[in-house]
């Protein structure tokens, strides 16, 4: 994309939450990039509403004009918290990423034993996107049914566009204990529907 000479917009909010050490930034490939990032994911500061944008210098003044009409500035204590996160939290974020990875492995293993393998194994963030078309092609209906009958919250793939229809997204940002319980409930739900194709014993 960098070779096309067009500006590149890169949302890197999950940067730092990768499990194979192979994460890259758009800025490694081009200076003609707008990189969006923040503190909600890597630093667990969801709700603090602080982020940043790296952009080519020629666009900064125009963006400042837009920004001042949407949000004047972040609160001072939020800015200090963000500075502290950048300066002092590397050990904490590394530990957090390691814990997420344990949860990722546990969820992928549980799904695999149910015969459910994502088309692409996640190597970052904290989500798994799984094809459930063999159970129900309507992902919203299926997600609501799983919530009602198994008491497991998940996100319908249709929320991510037409190509996501038939898929379900699970999140492993919860505790390992809750993930294991959620996977047990999901397995029981699929058993009840006769949809454990290719499943293996626990």
Q: Which spans of ≥5 residues are poorly predicted at pLDDT below 50?
A: none
Q: What is the global morphology?
A: elongated
The secondary structure category is alpha+beta
Round the mean pLDDT to the nearest integer and report it.
93
CATH topology of the largest domain: Aspartate Aminotransferase, domain 1
Give the strand order, joined by hyphens, for the main sheet.
1-2-3
Classified by CATH, the class of the largest domain is Alpha Beta
Radius of gyration, rounded? 20 Å
Number of domains: 2
| Total beta strands | 6
Strand content: 5-15%
N-to-C series of helices and strands: EEEHHHEHEEH
Distance between the termini: 45 Å
Number of helices: 5
CATH superfamily of the largest domain: Aspartate Aminotransferase, domain 1
Architecture (CATH level 2) name of the largest domain:
Alpha-Beta Complex
Question: Main traits of this protein?
Answer:
202 residues; alpha+beta; Aspartate Aminotransferase, domain 2; Aspartate Aminotransferase, domain 1; 2 domains; 3-stranded mixed beta sheet; 3-stranded antiparallel beta sheet; 39% helix
């Amino acid at each position: 994309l960098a070779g096309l000479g067009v500006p590149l917009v890169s949302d890197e909010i999950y940067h730092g939450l990768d499990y194979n050490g192979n994460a890259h930034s758009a800025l490694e490939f081009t200076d003609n990039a707008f990189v969006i990032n923040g503190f909600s994911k890597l630093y667990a500061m969801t709700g603090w509403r602080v982020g940043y944008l790296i952009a080519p210098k020629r666009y900064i003044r125009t963006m400042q004009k837009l920004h001042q009409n949407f949000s004047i500035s972040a609160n001072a204590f939020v800015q200090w918290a963000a500075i502290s996160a950048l300066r002092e939290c590397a050990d904490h974020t590394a530990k957090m990423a390691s814990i997420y990875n344990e949860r990722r492995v546990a969820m992928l293993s549980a799904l695999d034993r149910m015969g459910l393998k994502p088309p692409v194994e996640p190597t970052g963030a904290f989500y798994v996107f799984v094809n459930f078309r063999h159970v129900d092609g309507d992902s919203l209906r299926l997600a609501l049914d799983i919530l009602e009958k198994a008491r497991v919250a998940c996100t319908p793939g249709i929320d991510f566009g037409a190509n996501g229809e038939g898929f379900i997204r699970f999140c492993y940002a919860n505790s390992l204990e809750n993930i294991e319980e959620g996977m047990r409930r999901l397995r029981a739900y699929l058993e009840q529907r006769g949809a454990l194709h290719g499943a293996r014993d626990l």
